[in-house]
Design brief:
The structure holds two protein chains of two kinds.
Chain A (H helix, E strand, L loop, with lengths): L1 H11 L26 E3 L14 H5 L5 E7 L5 E9 L8 H5 L5 E3 L14 E2 L1 H4 L12 H4 L27
Antiparallel strand pairs in A: 1-4, 2-3, 3-5
Chain B lengths: L3 H32 L14 H11 L11 H18 L17 H22 L3 H24 L1 H7 L4 H6 L6 H4 L1 H14 L24 H26 L15 H22 L5 H33 L1
């Protein structure tokens, strides 16, 4: 009985507390930078596409909403010929972002992507690609990776040692 | 003019009761919001009052469907019974001196009888739906009625003994100096709990129990007929609040130290408002007891309390008579 009266009193005290509600369309809730919302494809600081079409994101995606096709540029770098995300399937789990070796695919704090037509939920590369570096401003995959391209040879990448000559006995 | 007065008042209560119940649906949700740190319906119109109209339009324009497996006649009759019974209960409520439809010398018994009739509505609704959840809801309602009706009546015996009358006007007049809520504190306590159980309000809404019985007795109801059940429930809430104020909080009299300098109807309605807020607070705070807990609370706690209350009240009254 006393505990019931105490409950009544505790609830009555809430008359003077403010409502927790965020009145959404007028008042935007705070979304942290790491919020998992709409997926984007970012560019490296030089303005080139970061995506190397490795397919890891498509492989790890639990709902199989990512589809892409690899193609090779004339300088030997890889890029996706097409990159398609079906957002009507996407569950915003962020596993693609975790799997991505080049920080290309990133999730952003934006969830307002409703459409009246289901077809409009399928985003092509031109919809996904942004003119920015996203959460990692300085990262450029081809500058740190040991892959040989037209502009640099093996061992010329950042922090990369010269390749070991396996035919020589010298250290 | 004086012959017309009850007719005008009856029409006022009819319209005011329905409008009041409609506004109460909105008011209750807003108040629950205040106590649960949220807003409640606040979009339509000022403070969201337009929600009332929106809900009404939605309920009135819904398909008036009767399930093919239901007992059609009883199914349609059940929701009307609760509204009619609750409306009849308002006939004896003294809102202010002279401002009541009829002052009968058995007003209290009439009120008890009408609220008991309202239970038939729930019972028949559950039975006629021909649905196991509805049947369980009706069954619970029957058991709840049998156990809580007993001491709902008994809890008022103390009031009747002290005022010496079943007429509600006489009961209010007897509270001119001291309200019965002090001397009949046990009776008040039991009557509030029985009143909640009687009007199927939330701590004791076992016939509805939406977590276990989907919607209990009105599982099969929709549209207008569902609206009638809701109307009946809110009318019951208002009626019980009116009766608590009349029987225990001095009716139209002002508070003891402040006096009667404001119009009687103002005191009555403001007190009813506070009691309704208290009922909403109960809904916001207290969880629903289990079914067997409800029954054992009724028979093992409430009934002895009322009997003790009657004994003590009678003894004190006899003692005071001997002193005088």
């Amino acid at each position: 009985m006393l505990s019931e009266l105490r409950t009544l009193w505790e609830v009555l005290k809430h008359t003077f507390t403010k409502a927790e509600t965020v009145q959404y369309p007028e008042e935007m809730p705070y979304l942290a930078p790491r919020y998992r919302g709409r997926i984007v494809l970012t560019r490296d600081p030089d303005g080139e596409e970061r995506c190397v079409a490795c397919n890891l994101c498509a492989a790890v995606c639990p709902v199989d909403c990512i589809a892409l096709q690899k193609d090779t540029r004339e300088d030997g770098t890889w890029y996706p010929e097409f990159f398609r995300i079906n957002f009507s399937r996407c569950i915003m789990c962020g596993m693609c972002e975790e799997a991505c070796p080049t920080y290309a695919i990133q999730l952003t704090p934006d969830f307002e992507m409703c459409e009246y037509d289901r077809q409009n939920m399928v985003y092509e590369k031109e919809h996904l690609l942004i003119n920015g570096v996203g959460k990692y401003p300085d990262y450029n995959f081809y500058r740190v990776s040991g892959m040989k391209t037209a502009s640099k040879d093996k061992g010329e990448a950042l922090n990369e040692a010269r390749p070991i000559d396996t035919k020589s006995l010298l250290p | 003019m004086s012959e017309l007065m009850p007719v005008i008042l009856a029409l006022t209560i009819l319209i005011g009761g329905v409008a009041g119940a409609a506004v109460l649906t909105w008011f209750e949700r807003r108040l629950l919001g205040v106590w649960q740190d949220r807003y409640g319906p606040n979009r339509l119109g000022p403070f969201g009052i337009g929600q009332v109209a929106a809900d009404m339009i939605k309920l009135l324009f819904k398909d008036d469907w009767v399930p093919p497996f239901a007992d059609r006649l009883v199914f349609i009759f059940a929701p009307t019974a609760i509204v009619v019974a609750m409306m009849m209960g308002f006939a004896v409520v003294p809102f202010a001196p002279g401002m009541m439809i009829i002052d009968v010398n058995i007003g209290l018994l009439f009120f008890l009888g009408m609220t008991s009739l309202a239970v038939y509505s729930v019972l028949l609704g559950g039975l006629a739906s021909n649905n196991k959840y509805a049947l369980l809801g009706g069954l619970r309602s029957a058991a709840q009625m049998v156990s809580y009706e007993v001491f709902m009546g008994l809890s008022l015996i103390g009031v009747v003994m002290m005022s010496g009358s079943f007429s509600l006007v006489d009961i209010v007049e007897a509270q001119t100096d001291v309200w019965f809520c002090f001397s009949q504190i046990l009776g008040l306590f039991v009557f509030i709990i029985a009143g909640i159980a009687e009007s199927h309000r939330l701590p004791f809404d076992l016939p509805e129990a939406e977590h276990e019985l989907t919607a209990g007795f009105h599982t099969e109801y929709g549209g207008m007929k569902f609206a009638m059940f809701m109307l009946g429930e809110y009318l019951g809430l208002m009626l019980i609040s009116c009766m608590i104020v009349t029987l225990f909080f001095g009716g139209w009299h002002g508070p003891i130290l402040i006096g009667d300098w404001l119009p009687p109807f103002f005191w009555f309605s403001s007190k009813v408002f506070v009691v309704i807020c208290f009922f909403v607070l109960l809904r916001a705070a207290i969880p629903r007891p289990r079914y067997d807990q409800l029954m054992s609370l009724g028979w093992k706690v409430m009934l002895p309390i009322t009997l003790i209350n009657i004994l003590v009240t009678g003894a004190v009254l006899l003692w005071m008579e001997g002193m005088a």
